[in-house]
């Protein structure tokens, strides 16, 4: 990557250069899932499922996805956003957000367009992913303008970007010494309320490494919330088909043992030193979205395979875990009735 030339940006060519990163055999396939997820989000945004003025900078693909996929990503994005919004309201912005396996997620930029502001926003992913994200941000003034302020400098290396309150860094989440070092570079405050976000990330991390990461967070941070979106009910026939499809693409799903049920999802956190956890499948999450909003997006496309969407919703979940008592009431207001969803999908 050529050295940056935009005003107000300093190059740090060696800082954050993760030459010591050693790939596991399936890492490349896992990295590719970011492109898939980003393409899907871009498609749904173009069709009007939700507003995102920034995803188009990172994804150019115009391929149209199936309505079930678009509706699934709508539920995913809205579910995470509901939890983030409740956390921000409770903390009045006196908090940090740490996005694990961030990919091309645009939450930081979208939050900058709202009244919600946070003390620090940190994004971590494989260096090959953050290098592409850094390059895109550097090349687009609309993105840089959201990071840069009059007094602050934006520092860039090939894989890392540091702004006054935004930090994007390449790291292997399985290497806790490296994670600790990167968070220190980002001026993390371990005493500040912090929300961790992970969308289909932990499932690709070996169980012991995942346990080590969650235990490390529980030991380092005083008050935190973890919002985790990923697969669930992987031990039935539909789950086996999903697993085989991912394995066929080279993804081993090393952490799939925690994705067998909502209980195993909760226990992953409880067994790693977290105070508590709740979990909902995406049927429940979708029902928690306002009826008006659901009706709006259901008019965007005809849904031929309502049964398929129902099965997809039953095999993904949202988990909220917490440290301490301050955030144990972050919840979704859900109506866990499958029949209501089936009715809204026009399934007899």
UniProtKB/TrEMBL annotation:
Transmembrane segments: none annotated. Its EC number is 2.1.1.233. Pfam families: LCM (PF04072). S-adenosyl-L-methionine binds at residues 76, 101, 172-173, 199. It catalyses: [phosphatase 2A protein]-C-terminal L-leucine + S-adenosyl-L-methionine = [phosphatase 2A protein]-C-terminal L-leucine methyl ester + S-adenosyl-L-homocysteine. Coiled coil: none annotated. SUPFAM superfamilies: S-adenosyl-L-methionine-dependent methyltransferases. Keywords: Methyltransferase, S-adenosyl-L-methionine, Transferase. GO terms for molecular function: protein C-terminal leucine carboxyl O-methyltransferase activity. It is an enzyme of class 2 (transferase). One of its GO terms (cellular component) is cytosol. One of its GO terms (biological process) is methylation. The keyword DNA-binding does not apply. Methylates the carboxyl group of the C-terminal leucine residue of protein phosphatase 2A catalytic subunits to form alpha-leucine ester residues. Belongs to the methyltransferase superfamily. LCMT family. This is Leucine carboxyl methyltransferase 1. It comes from Drosophila ananassae (Fruit fly). The gene is Dana\GF14921.
């Amino acid at each position: 990557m050529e050295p940056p030339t935009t005003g107000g940006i300093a190059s740090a060519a060696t800082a954050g250069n993760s030459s010591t990163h050693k790939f596991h055999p399936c890492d490349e396939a896992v990295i590719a899932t970011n492109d898939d997820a980003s393409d899907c989000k871009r498609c749904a945004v173009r069709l009007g499922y939700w507003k995102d003025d920034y995803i188009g900078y990172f994804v150019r693909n115009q391929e149209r996805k199936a309505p079930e996929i678009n509706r699934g990503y709508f539920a995913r994005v809205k579910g995470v956003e509901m939890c983030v919004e409740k956390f921000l309201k409770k903390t009045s912005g006196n908090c940090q957000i740490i996005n694990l396996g961030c990919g091309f997620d645009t939450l930081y930029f979208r939050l900058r367009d709202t009244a919600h502001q946070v003390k620090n926003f940190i994004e971590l992913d494989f260096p090959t992913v953050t290098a592409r994200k850094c390059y895109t941000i550097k090349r687009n003034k609309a993105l840089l303008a959201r990071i840069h302020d009059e007094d602050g400098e934006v520092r860039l290396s090939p894989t890392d970007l540091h702004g006054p309150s935004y930090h994007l860094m390449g790291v292997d989440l399985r290497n806790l010494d490296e994670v600790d070092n990167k968070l220190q570079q980002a001026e993390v405050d371990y005493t500040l309320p912090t929300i961790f976000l992970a969308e289909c990330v932990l499932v690709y991390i070996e169980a012991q490494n995942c346990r080590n990461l969650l235990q490390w967070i529980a030991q380092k941070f005083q008050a935190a919330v973890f919002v985790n979106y990923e697969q669930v009910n992987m031990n039935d026939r539909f789950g086996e088909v999903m697993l085989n499809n991912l394995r066929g693409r080279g993804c081993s799903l090393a952490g799939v043992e925690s994705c067998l049920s909502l209980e195993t999802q909760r226990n992953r956190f409880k067994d790693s030193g977290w105070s508590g956890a709740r979990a909902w499948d995406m049927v429940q999450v979708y029902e928690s979205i306002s009826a008006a909003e659901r009706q709006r997006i259901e008019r965007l496309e005809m849904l031929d395979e309502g049964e398929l969407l129902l099965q997809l919703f039953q095999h993904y979940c949202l988990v909220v875990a917490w440290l301490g008592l301050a955030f144990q009431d972050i919840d979704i207001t859900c109506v866990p009735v499958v029949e209501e969803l089936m009715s809204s999908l026009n399934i007899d």
